[in-house]
């Protein structure tokens, strides 16, 4: 019985790893040509996903790469007022440590035998037990698992649902090697997350393990075509930084200094999600894990859910190695309930971030009662 997994992200790799631990083979088809072909982005906050890493026999190795101090948090208002600061004691439990996405992906990749991941295989379509690749090749499957992220190709085999824009557009910028290049700004941001929440705008800076501070500037309640009308010249990074500063009128100069110190990486990102509580009638030979199944606002649940999906589908298949349809049904029943709850919570948090007085709402969130 051939298990084909499309996508070597966190969900697909967690599944392949748990299958491997249970003596079951799978093949992961990944469109990127190698593990380093594309930057993997910034940090992930891993909490419930630790259960999946335990199931995958990787929790000790995870703790070795996790950054407990990354849990530090500072929340400010645009006028510079510090509303909330939490510093993580050295002996604090690793409840929600941060980890570099590339380190976590490497951990999973290194835990698989050579040849499980087939790089440079972009899935173009699939049906009736045959996966077709963009280069004209094909491969058979008995069970196909779409772990191919937000823009999943496999999803269309199960549902017509598509991600829709949620009125948030993000510009990603960053300061490399901040301790050496801008020590004052490094001290200001600290070891973890540094959030400035205004009305309809936010700046989220975060220290990464490689010394880079990644910054996301979010523009809320903006249309899907906002980048086209925002007059941010993405092809001229210095002018783009100047325009971004213009878009933060009245913000404390310490915050705009962060933008001025950034390098020439300026990446636009539109935020889309799938409907909360999306389900589909179970199919005997296809299922989905991770963002392909339940794309949520980026408020800290997606990677955790993807890891859990992969690990729990792996366990269900190991429990029913001769009955994939039953394994898929059992997995989907649990996954729909768990990820539906996470998606609802994420949507509520997103609503707070997008509301007027977001800073006060988030303060109440961090300091309930
Ligand atoms: C800015 C940002 C910050 C985030 N921070 C957090 C956080 O702190 N905590 C958290 O829990 N979540 C976070 N998330 C969400 C998290 O990144 C995702 O939910 C998670 O990566 C989903 O994993 P996945 O395996 O489903 O998909 P992905 O990680 O997207 O992996 C999909 C893989 O499939 C491959 N692929 C795609 N199409 C094809 C194809 N046709 N053929 C073959 N391969 C294909 C891709 O190349 C990729 O390798 C964040 C998201 C963003 C955007």
UniProtKB/TrEMBL annotation:
Q: Which InterPro entries match?
A: FAD-bd, FAD/NAD-bd_sf, TetX_monooxygenase
Q: Does the keyword Zinc apply?
A: no
**UniProtKB keywords:** Cytoplasm, FAD, Flavoprotein, Monooxygenase, NADP, Nucleotide-binding, Oxidoreductase
Q: Which Gene3D superfamilies match?
A: FAD/NAD(P)-binding domain
Ranges for domain FAD-binding:
2-66, 286-320
Q: Which reaction does it catalyse?
A: a tetracycline + NADPH + O2 + H(+) = an 11a-hydroxytetracycline + NADP(+) + H2O
Looking at the keywords, is Transferase present? Answer: no
Query: Subcellular localization, per the record?
Result: Cytoplasm
Entry's Gene Ontology cellular component terms: cytoplasm
- Subunit structure, as described in the record: Monomer.
Q: What is known of its domains?
A: Consists of an N-terminal FAD-binding domain with a Rossman fold and a C-terminal substrate-binding domain.
The similarity annotation says:
Belongs to the aromatic-ring hydroxylase family. TetX subfamily.
Q: What is this protein called?
A: Flavin-dependent monooxygenase
Q: Which organism is it from?
A: Streptomyces uncialis
């Amino acid at each position: 019985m051939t298990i084909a997994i499309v996508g070597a992200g966190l969900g697909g790799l967690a599944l392949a790893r748990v299958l491997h631990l249970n003596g079951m083979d799978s093949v992961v088809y990944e469109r990127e040509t190698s593990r380093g072909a594309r930057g993997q982005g910034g940090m992930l906050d891993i909490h419930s996903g630790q259960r999946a890493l335990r199931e995958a026999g990787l929790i000790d190795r995870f703790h070795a790469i996790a950054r407990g101090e990354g849990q530090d948090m500072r929340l400010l208002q645009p006028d510079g007022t510090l509303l909330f600061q939490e510093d993580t004691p050295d002996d604090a439990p690793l409840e929600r440590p941060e980890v570099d996405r590339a380190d976590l992906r490497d951990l999973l990749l290194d835990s698989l035998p050579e040849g499980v991941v087939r790089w440079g295989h972009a899935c173009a379509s699939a049906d009736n037990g045959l996966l077709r690749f963009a280069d004209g090749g094909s491969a058979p499957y008995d069970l196909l698992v779409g772990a191919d992220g937000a823009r999943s190709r496999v999803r269309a085999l199960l549902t017509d649902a598509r991600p829709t824009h949620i009125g948030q557009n993000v510009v990603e910028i960053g300061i490399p090697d901040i301790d050496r290049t801008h020590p004052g700004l490094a001290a200001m941001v600290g070891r973890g997350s540094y959030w400035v929440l205004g009305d309809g705008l936010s700046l989220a800076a975060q220290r990464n393990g490689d010394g880079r501070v990644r910054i996301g500037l979010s523009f809320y309640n903006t249309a899907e075509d906002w980048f086209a009308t925002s007059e941010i010249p993405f092809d001229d990074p210095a002018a783009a930084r100047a325009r971004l500063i213009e878009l933060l009128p009245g913000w404390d100069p310490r915050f705009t200094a962060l933008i001025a110190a950034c390098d020439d990486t300026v990446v636009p990102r539109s935020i889309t999600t799938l409907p909360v509580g999306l389900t589909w009638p179970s199919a005997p030979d296809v299922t989905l894990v991770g963002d392909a199944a339940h794309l949520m606002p980026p408020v800290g649940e997606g990677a955790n859910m993807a890891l859990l999906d992969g690990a729990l589908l792996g366990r269900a298949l190991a429990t029913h190695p001769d009955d994939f349809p039953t394994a898929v049904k059992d997995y989907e029943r649990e996954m729909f309930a768990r990820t539906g709850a996470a998606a609802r919570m994420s949507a509520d948090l997103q609503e707070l971030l997008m509301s007027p007085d977001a800073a006060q709402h988030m303060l109440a969130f961090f300091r309930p009662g």
